[in-house]
Amino acid sequence: MNGSSRVPVPPILRSMITADTAPPTTTGPDAERPRRWFRIRVLQHEPEPEPIWPVPLPRPAVEGSGSTGTLTIVPPPEPTASAPAPDPAARAADQADRRAIGETVGLILQVIGGRMPAPRLARLADPPVQRYVAAATHRPDLRRAVTPRRSPAAPDARTGPGDRVCSMRIDRPVDGVAEVAAVCRFGERFRAIAARFELRDARWTCVALRLG
Questions:
Q1: Which of 121, 113, 134, 132 minimizes the C-alpha distance to 205?
Q2: What whole-number distance in Å separates Cα of residue 25 and Cα of residue 137?
Q3: Closest CA to 208 of 96, 135, 130, 120
Q4: Domain residues of the chain, as ranges?
Q5: What is the fold of 91-149+158-211?
Q6: Pairing relation of β-strands 189-200 and 62-63?
Q7: What are 123-182's pLDDT values in tens digits?
Q8: pLDDT > 90: what percent of the chain?
Q9: Nearest-10 crossing angle of helices 88-113, 127-136
Q10: What pairs with residue 198 in β-bridges?
C-alpha cells in the first residue's frame, strides 16, 4: 500500500466525521496535495439506568433446611374486644351527682345575686365558702350587674331572669371529689367560677370556691 492509496470510510462513520481541507502551503508544480483534517464528533452515551427496587420484604420463617422445610404461617391477631357498655346504674348515679352539683352552683349564684339568703348554703358549703359568697354579694360590679336601674314600666330585675349557669364542666379526679369549672352570667356580665366538691354523708359539699 503506497502513500496515494485511500482507505474507504464506512458509511456509519461518515455522519460522525467532518472533513476539512487545509489550503496548500506552496504553489507550483512542487505544491503539496491538500491535506484532509478529520474531526470526530463524540456521541453522548449513557448506560441504561438500573431499576430501583423497593426494600426487600423479610422472608418468612422456614423450619428445617433445604427444599424439604415447612413454611410457618403466623395467624392474624385476634380482634380486640370493644369496650364494655357503661353500667346503667352507674350512669344514672353519675347524672344524679352532676345534677346535685349543678343545683348547688345555681344556688350560690342566687345568693350572690341577692335572691336567696346566705343561710341556705349552710348544709351545702363549708363556712369559708359561705363567708366568701357573703362577701361577693357586696361586690360593686356584681351588684350593678344584677340590680341595674329599672324604668318605672319595667319589672324588678331581681325577680326576673338574669343569673344563670351558661356552661359547666365537672371532672372526677378521684372517688368522692368533683372539680367544677363553670361560666356564669350575672345580668349582662359573665364570670368564671371554679369550685371543689367533696362527697360527705351522701351529700356533695362545696369546700372551695373562687369567682373570676
A1: 121
A2: 122
A3: 130
A4: 91-149+158-211
A5: Nuclear Transport Factor 2; Chain: A, (3.10.450)
A6: unpaired
A7: 999 999 999 998 888 776 665 444 444 444 444 433 345 678 899 999 999 999 999 999
A8: 26
A9: 50
A10: 177, 205
Give the three-class secondary structure for 62: strand
pTM comes to 0.52
Alpha-carbon distances, residue 47 vs 5, 21, 43, 54 (angstroms)? 39, 36, 13, 21
For residue 2, give Cα distances in angstroms to 7, 17, 96. 11, 24, 121
Distance CA 195, CA 210 (A): 6
DSSP string spanning 156-170?
A: PTTTSS--EEEEEEE
Cell of 170: 365537672
What separation in angstroms does the CA of 136 have from each of 14, 180, 211?
106, 19, 8
Cell of residue 8, nine digits? 474507504
C-alpha–C-alpha distance, residues 210 and 61, integer Å: 65
Please enumerate, as own/partner, the contacts of 98-103 that have beta carbons within 8 Å and a separation of 24 or more: 98/170, 100/203, 100/204, 101/170, 101/178, 101/180, 101/197, 101/204, 102/165, 102/168
Largest CA distance in the chain: 142
Q: What angle do CA 164, 165, 168 make, to 5 degrees?
A: 175
